[in-house]
Amino acid sequence: MPHAVTTHPERRSRSADPARPGRRPWPRWARWSVALGATLMVLSGVALGGAQYLLHTATSKVTQQNLLGAAAAPQQQHRTITGAKNILLVGVDTRAHQDPGQLIRSDSIILVHIPADHSQAYLVSLPRDSLVSIPAYRNGATSYPGGQNKINAAFAFGSRGLTGAPALSHGFELLALTVRDLTGITPDAGAIIDFQGFKKIVQVLGQVCMYVDETTTSIHVGRDDSTGKPAAPYKINPDGTVNHRIPGVTPNVYTKGNHCLDPAQALDFVRQRDLLADHDYDYGRQRHQQQFLKAVLHQVMTGGLNSPTKLPGLLSAVGRTMTVDDGGIPLEDWAFALRGIDSDAITTIKTNDGTFNSRSVPGVGSAEILSPTSLELLRAVRTDTVGSFVQAHPSWVAASAPSVPAH
Length: 407
Hints:
By secondary structure, the chain is of the alpha+beta class. It has a domain at 41-73 and 80-203 and 319-396: Nucleotidyltransferase, domain 5 (2-Layer Sandwich), CATH 3.30.420.590. 32% of the residues lie in helices and 23% in strands. It is globular. The relative contact order is 0.20. Mean pLDDT is 79; it is low at 1-51.
């Protein structure tokens, strides 16, 4: 039998932990400041009186770097947080790129749209195999002449020949320029989320509880049938695709249903795209990563912020997980402006209605073609009319997975 992670009977979720006797509950804006940490709405706050100090402490933990470069909005003398905002989030897996000569490709690309009233957030994922035009670019070490390719190649071409912080900044800049040319959207801020770093956040929390909406088999983690020790269950090609099953190793299987995942399991689960029960590959992985981010955010707000023993480690882990370009608007302003948004006010939207629209492209391989309606969705992001788009296309909203209380 496959090695399945422990499942737990579904229980009614709690919107928040009860306040301890004699302690004042955390204000909602303080809880949501950590949201910038799960989706660039992070940070933290505390009970009244120490809020400003801890907010400053939280923002100081976040690594800040010029990521947008030439893709940034023209600098104004006084940039403000008012109005609709668009944040470009890029997920990377640093463990997969330990070789300095290996290209860094973005695992997930998400546009976070905040309407002008700052009442909610929309997450729009761009499939990493989307066929796009990538502009010509030079990073100082090498150059890219421009051309058609998959969108996640933009990060690779921008960072080629570089390591460390320069690789991240140049990779992000070329990706942001590609997104700007595709959508007409000039990001107001940007962030790189390191999914390896999320393992540290889960370590502080102890576990993350979420609903797995389709049985998922790991191609990375399993157990040797004879020794019971961890072992790789599949041989993986250099491009990340599956070559063959390794005899004598049983892969981890995350069955459909409620799970409380330990740090290693959580990181393994959000990486999977090849052996999903519904055969939805990248669309499934995008959905699972979004669900994971929301589950972490929910657990941080309902547990982590209320724990004086967890809070310092949580802030440190969040800071190490993210690299942020605040777009010239202080992180404290971002946190305060987004204080009214909670995890229930985050809507995830599927490009191409979550269905494949592939085409074989010479020199590129099989690529996803964004449908006319997907381009309409991106125009709605640019013009702050996503609410109207959602009303007209309700099936494009990803169904929310049942929330699972931590225990």
